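Customer ticket, subject: "Can you confirm the structure for 1,3,8-trihydroxynaphthalene reductase?"

Message body: Hello, I'm evaluating your service for our small team and ran a test protein. I'd like someone to confirm that this is what the system normally returns, since I don't have a reference to compare against.
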Amino acid sequence: LAGKVAVVTGSGRGIGKAMAIELAKRGAKVAVNYANAVEGAEQVVKEIKALGNGSDAAAFKANVGNVEESEKLMDDVVAHFGKLDICCSNSGVVSFGHFKDVTPEEFDRVFTINTRGQFFVAKAAYKRMEMGGRIILMGSITGQAKGVPKHAVYSGSKGAIETFTRCMAIDAGEKR
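Agent reply: Thanks for trying us out. I re-ran your input and got the following:
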């Protein structure tokens, strides 16, 4: 991935951190996105820079639940690195509980990040993406499962991602 530029949302810890580091190990320059925990993002940047393989990294603050912040994130990545080739939309929140207890606020919290956020991150990245670019949306096995107890909101939020991906792949064919 030498010469490629990747943005990974929610990459200050967990799966996003692992994705960012793996992309860097393969030579990509990585935009490490975080919403709140700057320390984690800065640590990932340090780990990437310490690889010494020509990759690079920088931390970018943006709450992907906010469309304007997602747009600005992609603008900032392009301004910093000169282009955008790969977008890994990884940010997400979990929710457990019986559906009878789910409040509208909890539903909106989960769908704002996990579903709406991923859609608009993909849109923002696509508008700035180079030919041959890649958009990766993180789903969950629970989105495909036959049913997971007390997981309706989270599973539903992730189930939409698979459908987004199929439709977006067709629409984005012009940038193959």
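A couple of notes from the result: The chain has a mean pLDDT of 94. The beta strands are 5-8, 29-34, 57-61, 86-89, 134-137. Feel free to reply with more questions.
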